[in-house]
Write a structure and sequence with these properties.
With 221 residues, the protein is of the alpha/beta class. It folds into three domains: 1-39, no CATH class; 45-151, Alpha-Beta Complex (Conserved hypothetical protein from pyrococcus furiosus pfu- 392566-001, ParB domain), CATH 3.90.1530.10; 153-209, no CATH class. 53% of the residues lie in helices and 11% in strands. Strands 1-5-3-4-2 form a five-stranded mixed beta sheet. Helix 7 crosses helix 9. The chain starts with a helix and ends in a 14-residue tail after the last helix. The relative contact order is 0.10. InterPro entries: ParB/Sulfiredoxin_sf. This is ParB/Sulfiredoxin domain-containing protein.
């Protein structure tokens, strides 16, 4: 079986190498990788399939609270230019468009001439699971990716909490579980946004009250 797979793999590689244009080759490789991903024991993990997507087919989101300062963006450009892309952009389809969940600045540096030429105008993309494509899931994905790297902007976070509470009626527990924050931080963020009283009657009373957050220990909600 191993010899047969090796033989078929060589045949596929030969077919792809004989395609006329670079775009044809990249598209064919994407198709092969996706087909392999579908039968992979690791298919539940998005990183199992990285697709090279044209820059213009990937768009940013409107809710990411983080901003990279020019010096850091310059370093990112240098890093990708020197070592190539070592991390893919995380995205999902929203209204037929690939929207970035994590990696906005990796997408941005892909527009620089020297990097764009090296990638033939494409960027590496990993797609979120099909079961996690609702707006709150996407926000959670962005925030947790940022916070796992120790990055988050307080003002932007407070705006997101407000939106999730008021527009999507997400509970405190959902926010605790999906944004990686605790009761004290949630209280602080709502105070920054000036809506502590406004949202207190919706859900906070079920889990904690303003001024009582010190009595809540991690894992009790």
């Amino acid at each position: 079986m191993t010899d047969l797979i090796a033989k078929k793999t060589a045949e596929v590689c030969k077919l792809i190498s004989e395609l006329g244009t670079v775009d044809d080759k990249i598209d064919a490789l994407n198709e092969v990788r996706e087909a392999l991903h579908k039968v992979s024991p690791l298919k539940d993990h998005p990183a199992d399939f990285v697709k090279w997507v044209k820059l213009e087919q990937v768009k940013g989101n409107k809710y990411n609270p983080n901003h990279v300062a020019p010096p850091e963006l310059k370093l990112l450009r240098k890093s990708v230019g020197k070592f190539g892309y070592t991390m893919s952009i995380v995205a999902c389809f929203v209204d037929g468009v690939l929207q970035i969940v994590d990696g906005f600045h990796r997408h941005l540096v892909g527009m620089y001439k020297e990097i764009k030429e090296s990638t033939f105008g494409r960027v590496p993309v990993t797609q979120m699971r099909a079961s996690q494509q609702e707006y709150p899931d996407l926000v959670s994905g962005t925030i947790l990716h940022n916070r796992a790297r120790g990055e988050h902007a307080v003002d932007g976070m407070s705006n997101i909490v407000v939106q999730l509470k008021l527009d999507f009626d997400m509970s405190d527990k959902w926010i605790f579980d999906n944004l990686g924050i605790d009761a004290e931080e949630l209280m602080r963020l709502t105070q920054i946004a000036g809506i502590a009283r406004m949202v207190a009657g919706k859900d906070f009373s079920k889990s904690w009250k303003p001024g009582e957050e010190d009595n809540l220990k991690q894992g009790e909600y």
